[in-house]
Amino acid sequence: MVLATLSGCPNAYAGTDMDEKLVVIAEYRDLPQAGLAQSTLEANGVPCFLENQYMVGVNWLYSAALGGLKLKVLEGDAPRANEILQTFEAGGSEGSNKEAFTPDTTCPCCGSSKIITRNYTRKFAAISLLLSLPLFFFLKRNSCQECGHKWK
Questions:
Q1: In this predicted structure, what is the pLDDT of residue 54?
Q2: Distance, CA of 68 to CA of 64 (rounded, Å)
Q3: What is the mean pLDDT, run by run of 10 residues, along the chain of 152 residues?
Q4: Whole-model pTM above 0.85?
Q5: Lowest CB count within 10 Å: 18, 36, 70, 115, which one?
Q6: Cα(65)–Cα(60) distance, rounded to whole angstroms?
Q7: Helical segments of 91-150, H only
Q8: How far is it, in rounded angstroms, from Cα 68 to Cα 60?
Q9: How far apart are CA 83 and CA 88, in angstroms?
Q10: pLDDT of res. 78
Q11: Using one digit for the tens of pLDDT, what is the confidence trace for 5-22?
Q12: Stretch (H or E) spanning 32
């Protein structure tokens, strides 16, 4: 058996007890979500491992057959990893303040947020194809439901 080492690649488990077991702290169906969780833990200094990562990467349908992707950490890191993942899944870091969504467009006349936006791009693209001329009239029109004002 030949063992290869990567020069310059830090070993995440250097200095840890090799007898310590890996425990599953989360299971995911999709590889991108599992990868985000893994990156979050590693960014916070918790070494982790994704089981079945490569099998699901080859064919995502294998995820259900293999029982999903399992995110594993060392047994001693499990409480800290669970805390980090709960913060991650709750929607961000502790210092983030999420403001309520406000629409960017309001009526310039009455200030109402009841706006209808009509996009005429498809119509001009069809005309451009029919005439075989490049027409660059991509229009977007807004109209207010409250006062009836129309603008670009």
A1: 92
A2: 6
A3: 39 58 92 93 94 90 87 94 88 47 67 78 70 66 85 78
A4: no
A5: 18
A6: 10
A7: 121-131
A8: 10
A9: 9
A10: 93
A11: 333 344 445 555 567 899
A12: helix 31-43
DSSP state, 20?
A: S
Backbone torsions φ then ψ of 25, nearest 5 degrees: -110, -20
136 is written with which tokens? 């660059």
Amino acid at 115: I
Query: Cα-flanking dihedrals φ and ψ of residue 51, to 5°?
Result: -85, 140
CB atoms within 10 A of CB 117: 9
Q: Identify the residue whose tokens are 């399992």.
A: 70
Q: How far, rounded to the nearest angstrom, does the alpha carbon of residue 66 sit from its chain's CA centroid? A: 23
Which tokens belong to 10? 């830090």
Look up tokens 């005309």; give the residue.
127
Q: Are 109 and 84 in contact (CB under 8 A)?
A: no
